[in-house]
């Protein structure tokens, strides 16, 4: 088993006043050759957007973009005609494909919105752009894994154009479970949302990240009540990026 550890305070950081963002991988003004991606996982941004502020209309292409609100509500508009509000307890995916324009705003006047912005390289270029969002509260599991994303349209959660599986893991102190890789050649990036846990042989605290690959499975054990996002992705980049 191979691992790469990213401590929370080692992430890139940008404070734009209206936006406070922590970058696990190279993004915008934060560029680190050793932290450009984890397999096809290209971006993991931990964003806080101030009241009434947000990202103006801007383009994306050939990227699977996933948003997971942690606090507050985020308003989404795009060139496909979508207008939606994403709330805590939901997950959003946008396949940018051949190209799409969109904006994201904090619609709240009295509280900041916190959300994870995640980008994954798709397995192929120039797919038809699409948007989807789903509630994930009904499938919440304690001391288990809740699948919130996969490559299968018929699975729980949202789907993307990539052999990737995302799970939320909620464990009470002292409990844990073994995670088994879904597809050979995939790795998992574990990101602690709150609490602390032993993942493999490493203790992770809030907002720490650990990439794991070259293994069929690994164990998670909660040091305290813990919530972890597990992002399983292919470790090889698609041919169009080679």
TrEMBL record:
It is an enzyme of class 1 (oxidoreductase). CDD domains: cupin_Yhhw_N (cd02910). InterPro entries: Pirin (IPR012093), Pirin_N_dom (IPR003829), Quercetinase_C (IPR041602), RmlC-like_jellyroll (IPR014710), RmlC_Cupin_sf (IPR011051). Residues 10-120 form the Pirin N-terminal domain. Binds 1 Fe cation per subunit. It comes from the Bacteria. The keyword 4Fe-4S does not apply. GO terms for molecular function: metal ion binding; quercetin 2,3-dioxygenase activity. Its cofactor is Fe cation. Coiled coil: none annotated. Fe cation binds at residues 58, 60, 102, 104. Keywords: Iron, Metal-binding, Oxidoreductase. Its EC number is 1.13.11.24. Residues 148-233 form the Quercetin 2,3-dioxygenase C-terminal cupin domain. Transmembrane segments: none annotated. Belongs to the pirin family. This is Quercetin 2,3-dioxygenase. It comes from Chryseobacterium aquaeductus.
């Amino acid at each position: 088993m191979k691992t790469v550890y990213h401590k929370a305070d080692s992430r890139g950081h940008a404070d734009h006043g209206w936006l406070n963002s922590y970058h696990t991988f190279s993004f915008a003004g934060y560029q680190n050759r050793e932290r450009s991606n984890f397999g096809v996982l290209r971006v993991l941004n931990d964003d806080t957007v101030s009241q009434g502020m947000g990202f103006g209309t801007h383009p994306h292409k050939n990227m699977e973009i996933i948003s997971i609100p942690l606090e507050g509500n985020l308003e989404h508009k795009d060139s496909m005609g979508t207008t939606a509000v994403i709330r805590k307890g939901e997950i959003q995916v946008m396949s940018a494909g051949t190209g799409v324009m969109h904006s994201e705003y904090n619609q709240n006047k009295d509280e900041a919105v916190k959300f994870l912005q995640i980008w994954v390289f798709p397995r192929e270029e120039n797919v038809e752009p699409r948007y989807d969002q789903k509630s994930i509260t009904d499938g919440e599991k304690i001391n288990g894994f809740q699948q919130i994303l996969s490559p299968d349209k018929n699975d729980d959660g949202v789907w993307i154009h990539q052999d990737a599986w995302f799970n939320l893991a909620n464990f009470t102190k002292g409990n844990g479970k073994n995670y088994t890789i879904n597809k050979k050649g995939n790795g998992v990036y574990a990101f602690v949302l709150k609490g602390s846990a032993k993942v493999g042989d490493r203790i992770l605290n809030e907002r720490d990240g650990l990439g794991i690959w070259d293994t069929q499975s690994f164990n998670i054990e909660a040091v305290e009540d813990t919530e972890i996002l597990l992002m399983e992705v292919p470790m090889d980049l698609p041919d169009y990026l080679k």
